[in-house]
């Protein structure tokens, strides 16, 4: 296994690009040997079938031969996937140099449509449309690219290589379709809005959906509605609006290779997005993040069958190009997540979709109310250390010894995780999990919390530390970190759910308030056993109030 359906990445350093093939699922990886990846996919729920379209090079694991197509896989449960023939190939003048990023939209009457970026014969980025040849085909096997493409040509004020990634379209109150496209105008990175009455003829809106000079070029925009707490946690169709509806704008920022989002309001009259937290600014770097680890170019869709918003995230390979070639594929999708708005109306909660639990086997648990004193290390025996679902709750008995928080740490949780790793003794924490550990502990990955006192309140730091994850050379092994926006003084406890799948470690802190995805490459797994532990390296005793763990069965991974 590795992680659900393979995506494809591509890079501005074309000869180093990383592009997935559909013969794997999860896999081994780390941070970029590719540079400036720009990819996107089109998830879709149609007539009871989940579709994932993804950038794909049918000629090999790298982007060194040929141009990109759109791969296509389908599923009935978001867990087991079947690979289908490519949906869109670079065979026309308007996409002959590659079928790049895009999105899928359901039109009235239930007809799907794809908007995607094509690299035309002049190597200019343009936006094209494609429709299924038979919309009643549950597999949507064949797609037609009308000869009148492109439907959105390159604007005169946008560089030829900075106009891409059309979003899922939404229907405005006036019945006009709107779509967001990433661009750069006069050196300012932003998201343009195009409008159409028929999905074929598009006109640019006078003002952008959002723009920020400080951010530079952004990619893969995703604008979607969420229910306020008064309306409950159900997902909403992308065109939903009105009372009790807020909107989320997500942007992928090229110069950080990270995804940022903000909850706010969408002004239907001006087609502008207004962030709710003005103090976070317009430069994105202070916006919130879906994931504080190794993901990029995330994409959501509305699952009409279960009335939920589902998020896919892409995690690229980062060991070496040589490893990509040996595997025969590169790039994975993380576990799909349900996404909904928190009660505070400011940030999103995320949780693995419930179907993931169908893979659980062989439940084990830690003895009730296990106390972890300073230096404690308790093994979670009887469960696979390489494919598992571990769900734990930690009770903090006292906050008296919490370390003082330095305000300079506020904007760089990753640096703080670097300075105060799992081996650095603390007051309240570090405590959490150690996973994929070798017998001699020379290789292991720590996922942990640490509590600091900040004036009269407390701040909770969550880290996934990869620095000892592998003894291999040439593997990217950073610490990742983010703060958990919670009142630890009131609750005195925090939860941690971690999904292990070979090279993939996905962790959800405090019910999905903070998420961190990591890729690891331990060498010991090839020849010896691996272990999972709970630990505490703080002065304050922590109680494990709950710990359940399951083996993961192997899903069908892009089977023929």
From TrEMBL:
Pfam families: Glyco_hydro_32C, Glyco_hydro_32N. It comes from the Eukaryota. GO terms for molecular function: hydrolase activity, hydrolyzing O-glycosyl compounds. GO terms for biological process: carbohydrate metabolic process. Keywords: Glycoprotein, Glycosidase, Hydrolase. Residues 355-551 form the Glycosyl hydrolase family 32 C-terminal domain. InterPro entries: ConA-like_dom_sf, Fructan_Metab_Enzymes, Glyco_hydro_32, Glyco_hydro_32_C, Glyco_hydro_32_N, Glyco_hydro_beta-prop_sf. Residues 42-352 form the Glycosyl hydrolase family 32 N-terminal domain. Belongs to the glycosyl hydrolase 32 family. This is Glycosyl hydrolase family 32 N-terminal domain-containing protein. It comes from Eragrostis curvula (weeping love grass). The lineage of its organism: Eukaryota, Viridiplantae, Streptophyta, Embryophyta, Tracheophyta.
């Amino acid at each position: 296994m590795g992680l659900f359906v393979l995506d494809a990445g591509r890079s501005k350093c074309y000869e180093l690009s990383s592009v997935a093939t559909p013969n794997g699922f999860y896999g081994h990886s780390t941070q970029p040997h590719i540079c400036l990846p720009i990819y996107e996919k089109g998830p879709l729920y149609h007539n009871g079938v989940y579709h994932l379209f993804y950038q794909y090079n049918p000629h090999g694991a790298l982007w060194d031969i040929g141009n990109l197509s759109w791969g296509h896989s389908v599923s009935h449960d978001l867990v087991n996937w079947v690979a289908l023939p490519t949906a869109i190939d670079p065979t026309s003048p308007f996409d002959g140099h590659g079928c790049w990023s895009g999105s899928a939209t359901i039109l009235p009457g239930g007809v799907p449509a794809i908007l995607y970026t094509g690299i035309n014969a002049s190597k200019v980025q343009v936006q094209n449309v494609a429709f299924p040849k038979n919309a009643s085909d549950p597999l949507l096997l064949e797609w037609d690219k009308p000869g009148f493409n492109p439907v959105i040509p390159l604007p005169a004020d946008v560089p030829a290589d900075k106009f891409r990634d059309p979003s899922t379209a939404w229907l405005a109150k006036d019945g006009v379709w709107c779509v967001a496209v990433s661009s750069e105008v006069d050196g300012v990175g932003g998201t343009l809005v195009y409008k159409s009455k028929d999905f074929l003829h598009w006109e640019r809106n006078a003002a952008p959906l959002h723009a920020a000079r400080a951010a530079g070029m952004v990619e893969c925009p995703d604008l979607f509605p969420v229910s306020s707490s008064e309306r409950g946690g159900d997902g909403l169709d992308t065109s939903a609006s009105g009372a009790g509806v807020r909107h989320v704008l997500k942007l992928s920022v090229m110069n950080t290779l990270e995804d940022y989002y903000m909850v706010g309001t969408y002004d239907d009259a001006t087609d502008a997005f207004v962030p709710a937290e003005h103090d976070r600014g317009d430069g994105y770097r202070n916006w919130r993040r879906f994931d504080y680890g190794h993901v990029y170019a995330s994409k959501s869709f509305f699952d009409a069958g279960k009335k939920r918003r589902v998020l896919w995230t892409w995690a690229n390979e980062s060991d070496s190009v040589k490893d990509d070639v040996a595997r025969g594929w590169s790039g994975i999708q993380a576990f799909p997540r349900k996404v909904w708005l928190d009660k505070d109306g400011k940030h999103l909660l995320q949780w693995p979709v419930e179907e993931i639990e169908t893979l659980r086997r062989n439940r084990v648990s830690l003895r009730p109310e296990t106390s972890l004193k300073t230096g404690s290390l308790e093994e979670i025996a009887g469960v696979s250390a390489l494919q598992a679902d571990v769900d734990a709750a930690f009770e903090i008995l006292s906050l008296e010894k919490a370390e003082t928080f330095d305000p300079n740490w506020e904007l760089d949780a990753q640096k703080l995780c670097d300075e105060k790793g799992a081996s650095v003794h603390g007051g309240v924490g570090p405590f959490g999990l150690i996973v994929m550990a070798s017998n001699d502990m020379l290789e292991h990955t720590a996922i942990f919390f640490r509590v600091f006192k900040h004036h009269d309140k407390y701040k909770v730091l969550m880290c996934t530390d990869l620095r000892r994850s592998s003894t291999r050379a040439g593997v990217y092994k950073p610490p990742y970190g983010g703060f958990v926006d919670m009142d630890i003084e009131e609750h005195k406890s925090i939860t941690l759910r971690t999904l292990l799948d070979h090279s993939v470690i996905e962790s959800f802190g405090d019910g999905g308030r903070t998420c961190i995805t990591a890729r690891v490459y331990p060498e010991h797994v090839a020849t010896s056993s691996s272990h999972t532990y709970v630990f505490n390296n703080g002065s304050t005793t922590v109680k494990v109030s709950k710990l359940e763990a399951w083996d993961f069965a192997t899903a069908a991974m892009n089977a023929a």
